[in-house]
Design a protein that fits this description.
CATH superfamily of the largest domain: Creatininase
Strand order of the largest sheet: 2-1-3-4
Distance between the termini: 26 Å
CATH architecture of the largest domain: 3-Layer(aba) Sandwich
Radius of gyration: 19 Å
Strand content: 5-15%
Structural class: alpha/beta
Number of helices: 8
Shape: globular
Order of helices and strands: HEHEHEHEHHHEEEEH
CATH class of the largest domain: Alpha Beta
Number of strands: 8
Length: 268
């Protein structure tokens, strides 16, 4: 069963797309994920999207996966050598034209599978414009946000609290499960406190400093508070076992949502 649009032949496409399958649009980023993990989290978004599509098809909702957009909207990671990101304007234009290309051929049942936090506000703006123009409601299923919410269920609340964060879980565990050959467990860093400053004030995280205990947002990149690309989570707590459980739940939830969406949009 082919679910990747890039693998479907022209002849197969003419028959398949006339049936208006749900189209999953996976988005990700190419940025620092810590010294132990591959930079392309879009690879994970694509793999999870394929699993969701297959599960949705098996549940009776014909679903395909568009080619993944590997570059996310630029936010904190411009300082990383080898990183590639799009400006907000470029990301908005690319996403808009991807959706327009699908709509041209009647593929109006679209679900965005987002794999990068910086993409979220632009996705909202783009999909809202299509909704206001009467062209359809295209929901966004934020993969890693849903996965992060599953961690307490999978790991226990206290372990999940310590493991969650950029460069750690849920992405590190998911990568250890789906693409273990790309991981470098020998490079997993020790946890560290943010020690950089901006305007003479300590960072509270990415894009924020502390003034007398109060958060103040500042323009910055990740290499100030987290030069190794790891946020507040401890990647030493990540595991392939956690990743397997999270992916199984994530795929089940995603496929269930796709089936629901397909039913709601069947007559739309």
């Amino acid at each position: 069963m082919k679910v990747r649009m890039g693998e479907i032949t022209g002849g197969e496409a003419r028959a398949l797309y006339a049936r208006r399958p749900v189209v999953l649009l996976p988005l990700g980023s190419h940025e620092d994920q810590g010294p132990h993990a591959s930079m392309g989290d879009y690879l994970l978004a694509e793999l999870v999207a394929e699993r969701i599509a297959r599960a949705a098809c098996e549940a009776g909702a014909e679903t395909v996966v568009a080619p993944v957009l590997p570059f996310g909207k630029a936010d904190f990671f411009g300082a990383m050598p080898g990183g590639i990101a799009l400006s907000g304007r470029a990301f908005e234009l690319v996403l808009t034209e991807m959706i327009e290309a699908l709509l041209r051929h009647g593929l109006d049942r679209i679900v965005v599978l987002n794999g990068h936090g910086g993409n979220a506000p632009v996705i909202h703006d783009v999909t809202q414009r299509f909704m206001l123009a009467g062209k359809g409601v295209f929901p966004c299923f934020y993969l890693w946000k849903v996965a992060g919410a599953l961690l307490p269920e999978v790991m226990g609340a206290e372990r999940a609290r310590r493991a969650a964060g950029h460069g750690a879980d849920p992405l590190a565990s998911i990568a250890m499960h789906l693409t273990p050959e790309r991981m470098r467990p020998d490079l997993v860093p020790e946890p560290r406190e943010a020690d950089g400053t901006c305007l003479g004030l300590p960072f509270m995280g990415w894009g924020a400093v502390s003034f007398e205990g109060h958060e103040v947002n500042v323009p910055s990149e990740y290499d100030g508070p987290s030069p190794d690309g790891v946020g507040t989570g401890d990647p030493r707590l990540s595991s392939a076992e956690t990743g397997k459980l999270v992916v199984e739940r994530l795929v089940a939830i995603g496929a269930g949502f796709v089936r629901h969406y397909a039913g709601v949009r069947a007559e739309g």
